[in-house]
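Hi,

I'm pasting everything inline rather than attaching a file, because the server keeps stripping attachments. The sequence lines come first, and each chain or strand is labelled.
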Amino acid sequence: MEYAEPMSVTVVGSIAFDAVQTPHGGRERMLGGAAVHFSLAASFFDEVRVVGPVGDDFGEPEYAVLHGRDVNTDDIEHVAGGKTFFWKGVYHENMNSRDTLETDLNVFEHFDPKLSQASKDCDVLFLANIFPALQLNVRKQCEQARFVALDSMDLWVNIAREALVAAISAVDCVILNDSEVALFTGEREVVAGARKIMEHGPSAMVVKLGKYGAALVTADESFWIPAFPVDFVTDPTGAGDSFAGGFVGCIAAHGGEATLETLKLAMAYGTAVASYNVEEFGTERVARLTGPEIVERVHELRSITAFETPEVALKA
Ligand code: AMP
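And the predicted assembly:
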């Protein structure tokens, strides 16, 4: 289905400088943050407005990356005299797990999201990983959004569970990784854990499985997709948020109507965008990605997972 008017997506979350070390190299300081990775990915599908705070150290080169993909930055809040959120992480040999070495909240510490009317009027809203009470506050400001998705992290499960439950209860879709689902629910199995979270209200859940792909769980179905098998993973930072950008972006491009078919297609688009993200450090690859490259991987994902099902004669 084609929609004449481009859908508008608002994302609220971290805008950051990241320091990353992997077994194959690193970067001391690069543009990052969940809202940045999400915005770049979603920008292939919709008009995107990014909401979050930055400090004096956030300048033209950083804005240029976002403007290069036509992301609307009017609601980036410049805190005079402040420093931008800083995160430092190191990846283990398997590149599927990492340790956080440093989190400097800086301007993020007193962040109180202020949305312009244009951001409030979004068709689709993504609440990237921030304090869940702020997520709920933003969700309430975007009353008419047709589809709202939320990401979170282990920290909030541990220290703000009640606020997280309240935020989850107010959205359509929750996106978490498998260890966060297990921590939240005590369930190790993906579908069982997802359904427990959905008892709080959301009609869909995406469980990210890192290099093993992702699962979509709805009330009656589950759908599984592998990660796209790239030749070389340089830096997984932001893969989850790029996935979310492709996933949510695709749903917005379908008018925010999260039918099962659209959700499955969104899984493929999220997977395709995330696969490019990990090929280079930070935003480097997605910043120069093209639409046809995304489509090519969506088709390849289909061909590496589809098979015919003629019956095989089995022995008794
Ligand atoms: P991902 O690899 O998709 O989990 O996202 C990594 C991004 O999240 C990095 O670019 C970080 O700047 C950002 N990030 C890391 N820790 C936090 C945090 N506590 N709150 C918000 N954003 C964070």
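The mean pLDDT is 96.

If the labels don't parse on your end, tell me and I'll reformat.
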